């Protein structure tokens, strides 16, 4: 009996999508903060 990779892949994608969206939103604010304050 081999594992069903489709279900495993779907579960991992569903769990990674919110993390990826949070990373994109956080990256936008991080770059905006660097641009306004300047990097010393």
From TrEMBL:
<dbReference type="InterPro" id="IPR035906">
    <property type="entry name" value="MetI-like_sf"/>
</dbReference>
<keyword id="KW-0812">Transmembrane</keyword>
<feature type="transmembrane region" description="Helical">
    <location>
        <begin position="12"/>
        <end position="31"/>
    </location>
</feature>
<keyword id="KW-1133">Transmembrane helix</keyword>
<keyword id="KW-0472">Membrane</keyword>
<dbReference type="GO" id="GO:0016020">
    <property type="term" value="C:membrane"/>
</dbReference>
<protein>
    <recommendedName>
        <fullName>Carbohydrate ABC transporter permease</fullName>
    </recommendedName>
</protein>
